[in-house]
Amino acid sequence: MKIGSQEVGVLGIWGKGGMGKTTLARAIFDQFSHQFDSSYFVSNVREESKKIGLTCLLEKTISVLLNDGNLTMIESPNTQRRLRRIRALLVLDDVDTSHQLQYLIEENLLLGPSSKVIITSRDRHVLVSGGVQVVHEVKELKMEESLQLFCWHAFKQAYPKMGYENLSAQAIQYARGVPLAIKVLGLYLNSRSTKAWDSALKKFRKYPHMGIHNVLRVSYDGLDVPEQRIFLDIAFFFRGERKEDIIRVLDACNDFYAYCGIDSLQDKALITISRDNKVEIHDLLQEMAEEIVREEAREHPERRSRLNDVNEIQDVLKNSTGTDAIEGITLNPKEFRNHLHLSADAFKKMSNLRFLRISSKLKGGYTVRFPFGLESFSDELRYFCWEEYLLESLPLGFCAEKLVEIHMVCSNVVKLWDGVQDLMNLKTINLSFSSKLKELPDFSMAQNLEILDLRYCKKLRSIHPSLLSLPKLVSLNLAGCCKLKNLHGDTPLKSLKHLTLTGCIALKEFLVASEEMRILHLNNTSIKTLNLQVGWFNKLEELHIGWRLKSFQINELRSLTSLKIFFLSNFTEGIDKSKLLILFDAWHSLEELHLRRCDVGEIPDNINGLSLLKILSLRRCSLSSLPNSIKHLSKLREIDLGECKQYATTTLVSLKSVTQEAQFQRA
User: Fold this and answer.
1) Of 206, 326, 340, 346, which one has the greatest count of Cβ atoms within 10 A?
2) Are 156 and 93 in the same domain?
3) Is 663 helix (H, G, I), strand (E, B) or coil?
4) DSSP assigned state of 433
């Protein structure tokens, strides 16, 4: 926003509570207000509009700008003409609704040329919907800036006192760059002993400083009920998870409306979305969420909606004191000092449990055990994650009707359940590394299942036929299922994009097709003849085959016109030049070509037609030369000729001279 510009400029300053939005706006106001005919800093618009109303606030603002204490007709043509003649600097601090902006700026404060308006808000959507085109986000202070600000408040100097260096670093770590938190901590700790500092910092990790908590909580209190529930769920269960995964689970909960709810949380700076689309929460906001839930029943964790404190969870589960108030549990057992032995009815009273996550990253290898088995869980479960689950099946009567995701990595399950369940909400199943799993139930009712991960289920011999007819299945991972002998679908799958069978060493028969297939891994299997039905793999981009493969149909491979990565290993039957000639003419999208431990006599000249080729790996191939046409591959950056014993060193040196950009490997 240029101060000298003739336009009426409007600047928005946005960020979560305590970030210094008001301080920044005040600094700009103090520096430039003398350059304007009139100026006014309207503090606390959110609170003032509640106390005196927008009309009174508008009257006060116009009176100050026009320097007219007797103004009565704010909407009169004369008043509006006077406003349009002055060059004013106006700050509206802490605006929280777009209606405030519309009433104050668009409808009643039509200022003269070169006037400037600065608006601070915790809600980006309020600014954008109010017509603010330039929005500045106030971000956390850097470490050096945080330390200096803290020290001025704690020690009245720019650096820590001797003996307080480590404690100062801990305080800065706690505040995480939020100026308000840094100032409050500095003032609170000022003139206290090192023992008092250590005690206070430990306390604040469990019970937030209320001066900080109350400022941050303003944004939470401004949310509607579904948005508040979404925020608390993210803070307790989904911090650091992908946005689309969170939406998938929360949308299965009644009246959550997760997509727009998450957008609202982002606009209010209560969450951030990283570049890889993961939802993050500032540590102080995380602590605020935990304090909000503690307030539900401070002395009775069994009466709270969400639990994540390991000691409180242990007490509730060991004593079977759970109630219908509990909606979610996430157990972080890093503080376990022994195995946790629970009674069979530990979860029985939690009739409204929606989320359950028990991690396997246990300190010392401790686990949650059920000496007398386990009774069923709540029928309200949407998300079930129990890594290293020790029982051989889920409890009798387990209801998966509302489940969206099942994660049981490294479990002892032999089978999940008997019979057919209504699984219409189920989207994801992860049973990877469940080495005792022998069979899968009938999934014919799981018509919305998208992801199935069965990696290294080493005793799994077959796949229930219902799985290979699911219309929305996108990813199927069976890598390392070493006893799986065949995979045979009666009809092509409609949505399958990723199929991984790497390391299925007993697999001899493969007949699965999908027009949507993008990635297919068939390496390290016992498949001897490749069978890719022409017309069903036109979108395939990545193909890995080899080990015991004896033959393939050239027409099948040449039909893969979208292929970007081709990986063939241990093919000793010989790939003659004529076959490669046909493939190179068809594979114009190829970016990586890996022919490892293959009997390749000669590379044809038309390799120069692979204009997008970046990597060429011919490791341990029986190859004596490469064609000169390879020098025309401008994108080629890596050539691997390792252990090509017949390849002449002089030819390699000559090749380097014509493709300077490529990196060569020859071990």
Assistant:
1) 326
2) no
3) strand
4) T
Asked if 176 and 103 sit in the same domain, the reply is no
Q: Which two tokens stand for residue 577?
A: 């030049």
Q: Are residues 98 and 156 in the same domain?
A: no
Q: Are residues 196 and 230 part of one domain?
A: no
CA distance linking residue 631 with residue 618, whole number of Å: 16
How many Å is the Cα radius of gyration of the chain?
33
632 in a structural domain: yes
Matching residue, tokens 């990595």: 409
User: pTM score, two decimals?
Assistant: 0.84
**Interval 224-276: pLDDT, tens:** 999 999 999 999 999 999 999 999 999 888 778 999 999 999 999 999 999 88
124 and 148 belong to one structural domain = no
Residue 242 tokens, joined: 């992908």
- Number of Cβ within 10 Å of residue 36's Cβ equals 21
569/590 same-domain check: yes
- Same domain, yes or no, for 40 and 87? yes
Domain that holds residue 194: 143-206
Are 71 and 160 in a shared domain?
Answer: no
Helix H or strand E segment including 119: strand 116-121
The separation between the first and the last C-alpha atoms of the chain, rounded to the nearest angstrom, is: 60
Q: Out of 67-81, 166-180, 320-334, 439-453, pick the least confident.
A: 67-81
Distance in angstroms (rounded) separating the CA atoms of residues 546 and 572: 10
Is position 372 within any domain?
A: no
- The structure tokens listed for 611 are 């204009």
**Is residue 312, in this structure, part of any structural domain at all?**
no
Helices marked H in 179-236: 179-189, 194-206, 210-221, 225-233
Q: Give the chain's largest Cα–Cα span.
A: 100
- Between CA 592 and CA 609 the distance in angstroms is 13
Domain count, the chain: 4
Closest CA to 122 of 222, 209, 212, 48: 222
- Output the pLDDT for position 592: 97
Q: Please, what sign has the CA dihedral across residues 643, 649, 652, 656?
A: positive
Q: Where are the beta strands (DSSP E) in 525-640?
A: 542-546, 565-569, 592-596, 615-617, 638-640
